[in-house]
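Hi R.,

Here's the input for the Isopentenyl phosphate complex you asked about:
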Amino acid sequence: MILLKLGGSVVTDKSRAFSMREEVVKRLAGEIAEVGGELVIVHGGGSFGHPVATEHRLQEGLASETQLLGIAKTRLAMERLTERIVSILVSKALPAVPIQSSSVFQCRNGRIEKAEIWLVKGLLRLGCIPVLNGDVALDEARGVCILSGDQVLAYLARTLGAERAVVATDVDGLFDRGGRLISRVTRRSAAKVIPYITPSGDATGGMQGKVEELINLAEDGVPSTMVNALVKDRVRNALLGRKVKGTVFEAE
Ligand code: IP8
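And here is the predicted structure with Isopentenyl phosphate in place:
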């Protein structure tokens, strides 16, 4: 079974609020349909979830009643994005079934503590493709937190015993200080790069958060490949396990 993360920068245009990259998602749905096999998809928030979550400071937890409307608006924004992505997947005859991450995961201090994982397992058993998302989730310590799709991906990959993960972004992979693409990264080499990653302003830590999740995941036995989904066939080839331009996250 493979986990696929469709990053927010792939499924949406992050420079314009609430704008989806319809054409990119349609092409990716076609690539996914060509591959087949057991798959779980997780998508990020992009220009739907992040601006709303950041405006209401939800990543800091619940400190004031004025944020309640922010929870509702963030949830709604993610629901709208999921609906559009899933509609495209279904139009390519993929049995994609959305599952709200906020209804599956309970967090503590921003980390997943409990999960109704049977929902995901049940759909997989039927042969469906569960589609989850980054979300605003309940948090036992903070009231709410912004749960990144990357954390959801890593949690599911570990719990479901995934073979590997493919992380689709809008860049070719991870670059070193000199701007060279790093084709293979481990905890040791990542430590040299992380301090130089430019902060994204996302509610969930952007590329830095992603690298940390993927390194920890690799050390737990699930390697992943980060690829540029804006380039045709990179996601398809990565899903097929072919050698592809990108960054592979592996254990030391
Ligand atoms: O884009 C964040 O998910 P991500 C989701 O995977 C929200 O970090 C609600 C901003």
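One thing worth noting: The chain has nine helices and 14 strands.

Cheers,
M.
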